[in-house]
Amino acid sequence: MRPLLRIACRLIGEEWWPLLRGTLLAVAVLAAGVALLGLSGWFITAAGLAGLAGAGLLFDVFRPSAGVRFLALGRTAARYGERMLTHDATLKSLARLRVELLEALSKNPFSRLANLRAGEQLNRILRDVDTLDGLVLRLIIPFAAATLALIGALVALWLLVGLSLAVWVLAGFGTGSVAALAVVIVRARKPARQAFSAQNALRLRAIDLVAGRGEWLVAGETGLRTDHALAAERKLRDAFVDADRAERMSGLVMSITETIVSGGALLLGAWLVIEGKVDPAVAAIGFFATLALAEILGPIRRGLAELGPMTDAARRVTRMLDAPQPLVAPSAATTSRSSETILSFESVSFGHAEGARILDRFSLDLAAGEIVALTGASGAGKSTILQLAARMHRPTGGAISLLGSPIETWSETELRGQAAFLPQRSALLAGTVRETIRLADPQLDDGAIWALLSSVALDETVAARGGLDMRIGEAGSGLSGGESRRLALARVLARRPRLMLLDEPTEGLDRETALRVLSGIHRHMRANGAILLASHRAAEREFATRCHHVAAPASV
Amino acid sequence: MTPPAAITADATEIEPTSRDKARRRLNRMTEAETPRLRRAEWLTVAASLLWIAQAAAAAWVIDDLVSGPPDLPTALYGSVSFVLVGILRAVLSHRAGSIALAAAQAAIAGERETLLHREALRSPYSGGHQNSAEIATLAADKLAMTLPYLTRYRPAMARARIVPAAIILAALPFSWVAAFILLVAGPLIPVFMALVGMAAQEASERQMEEIGSMNGLLMERIRALTDLRLLDATARTISDFRHSAERLHRKTMKVLAVAFLSSTVLEFFSAIGVALMAVYVGFSLIGQITFGAWAEPLGVGEGIFLLLLAPDFFQPLRDLAATWHDKAQASAVAVELEAIETAPFVPMLGMAHTPKAGPVPATLAIRSLRWTSPSGKGIVFPDFTLAVGQSLAIVGPSGSGKSTLLALISGLARASRGAVLVDDVPLDDETAGGWRRHIAFVQQTPHFAHESLRANLRRFAPEASDDDLRAALSAASATDIVARLPRGLDTRLGATGHGVSGGEARRLTIARAFCSNARFILADEPTADLDAETARAVTEGLMVLKARGASLIVATHDLELAARMDHRITLGDAA
């Protein structure tokens, strides 16, 4: 419940003024509805009485009929205003919440970023935030408005008709609502939660089925995987039916309550007339107003049905907002940072907490102007060295410094400005070639972009396919593996860094293209810069000014 | 076979509007469930009509009070009937809801099943809709958005058709003016609703598009967070995203403004209708209006009855307006579904179910094989024949069609001309499944299912024991990778194999092929991402498989590996 309250405070706090105005309008809508029906009932009954008494001409018809028209039109206008105000305010703060979630997500340490399952995170951001819109719109505002309107109506009934009717209406609706709420809370929570997890399972399995379809077919598993996804769908259906049954049951309880309370109000009014305590027109007010009050409660019931999913969504959303923030490196801009040594590793060790040691007391100095190729068997730790140099992990032992300053002291922006890293696998975003390159540097003009493309031997390909406006699909689709890799390399070159960290930059290229790309890299190397690359190709080793062999740590 | 590019829209055909298309698609979706949906609709109509009886009971009680002398039995009978009919009404509409839900779920389940069965067979090498995430979202989430249309909109529509007319008929015996008031106020509503509804539909479709593109946008950015951070582009990306979120907010408000306007129009008319009715009845009762009632002047009971009927004359129309958005949403989903269904679709060869393995084929051959890419570019492959146990290298520059040829051989892509012959029988939907029982495929970008590494390694050999897996890992030089993983064979790798490097992922997929007993091993760049030493070890491993009697078909840049194969074909300019 606490996360739900926190989110509620947030959503209301940011937009409290429009929400307050919206709530007041909502109260006006409900009150006008009750008054309209009550007044009409009174008007007709009283007119009937006057007609029967032959006093029709003395009866003031104009004020009541004007009141009926005023209430009818005022209610309509208030309803429109209320809806626009509250929806606009709520959706605005939800949009802000989404952005904040993405921001929180981006601050996770690299090791967690690599493990984020994009589908699940997206699901949280979009779906959970969508679910939360009901919190203000369908729960808090209707509840506040209904409570206020109900109190007002009960007081009016007490004054106009009598205490007995007010008590009957309060007791009747009170009991009925509590019973309906109990049904929802007791019987709908669990299936609603099951439905949520089945929905997630269905989504994951559907993605798995469609994204891996070639592989499933070759392995003869297409049928199996389809059944797997459809099993989740069946589970979803069952859970949904259970949740729906509970909600429907609570609706049934509520409808029966409404009928009994209205019927009771009719009987009570008749009894009061027979006893001579009120006149029939006032009894009619009681009955008609009670009928109208029943309509107030409908929206609250629908809101309560969403309470379970909303609580779960709020819990997940707050957990993400509170996700552990990485240690932000303090920027100690005092050191010189113009050292001749671009990068140095001093007996650096690294290993994951659970796994074996990956790097053991590794040392390396990289001077300005140097191109060093790390060689060694796959798994010897070449990629890890590059990742450490890009500060994607913290070493478990030893010290790394960049341009003479310990790497931990660099601010994120400064560090990324000096050292650019091409990992083994890069993600490309959908968009044009121009947008892709400009991601690295928004200031680049078309000429500079063409120069970069020519350095990675992509200029002809791009020119043949529509130039810089050539569209790249999701995750680089439309490009071959080698082409998307070179585009990612161009993005790194566009950063114009002092230190380039390249993990197998010419992988998957034929020798001729590889040589062209390497000379392109060389062109973009800054005179006072250096390159460190992980390599297993002869062409790359020949390109380097020096090779450094990395040996895997002795097995534990 | 016609190339997929030619199957696109026929320009001479008159384009039906998207609304018609959506309606037809939705009807097709509910065809099988029509009887149940009809039953639910009739029950909810019956429940609504019971209000006429309730109104009569209440009017009788009040009439008795006014015309007096009032007596308790009348009040008691009247109130009790009011309550009993009301309970029956509640039960009927409850029942209607359950039936409608069951029918709607069955209809949606049917669509999901069809969609998944179909998309599981779409060739990744053809055009058409290739965004797996979008298709999965459609199947898992968006199809469920048609539920409110079936369970709320359609019953509301049924009520809107019948209940107002029935109420006019009920009012007519007492006063033709009252019936006339309703008759005039009623039909105006659908006219306005239709206008507003059309605007809402268009706005909602645009909003759906925006939601879709924002989902795609965000999904991509989350996947690329590491890269974005390395490029110091996180802040810019977040501010871009903020703009799209704001844009979505503005568009949503536009949709809502139209939707709210439609219900406001309705409320306006219903409020005016009720007010007119109250004023008419009131004036008649005091004798200022003398026309309208048939013979006698209007009595109090009749007046109350008419007043109670008036709101429920408009209620079905208001319910319909409240669910109008559900229809718009369902139509937008239907349009999207239709778009995926009518996009060029080239299935992979063969069926989802796998036939029993036949005898091991003796030869594999291709004859005048030609493939046309979705963009219309053609590739012609040189003929070859390969006997079981022999090996073949496919070489050529990047983009010359090496991977495509492997896809054609394994039946994941369809040739536009020529044939792949297995034992001289052309590969087609009938024969592909049996042929694939004999092949293992090392794809260039492996897909790891969201399950343990052990389960992933057993893909082509479900019965393999841990010992078999260890032998295969060792042959693929992949033992050390598993040793380094935190939970060994029980580790779950991400869909694209995150947690291991590119070379490691490749060696794991090679190990997967090693533990199968397939007699034809297709490998796409098996030594890419590997250092020379490991590449040599993997090559030796492949040669061991060959020595066991397997055929190797290898697409590669690695000349050393290519040199070890018995035959070689060169694609691209040299062909």
Largest sheet of chain A: 5 strands, parallel
Number of helices of chain B: 18
User: Which homologous superfamily in CATH is the superfamily of the largest domain in chain A?
Assistant: ABC transporter type 1, transmembrane domain
For the termini of chain B, the CA-CA separation is 24 Å
* CA-atom Rg of chain B in angstroms: 35 Å
Silhouette of chain B: elongated
* Low-pLDDT segments of chain A: none
Number of strands of chain B: 10
CATH topology of the largest domain in chain A: ABC transporter transmembrane region fold
Q: In sequence order, what are the helices and strands of chain B, one letter per element?
A: HHHHHHHHHHEEEEHEEHEHHHHEHEHE
How many structural domains does the protein architecture of chain A include?
2
Summarize this, please?
The complex is a heterodimer of chains A (556) and B (575). Chain A is α/β, with parallel strands linked by helices and 556 residues long.
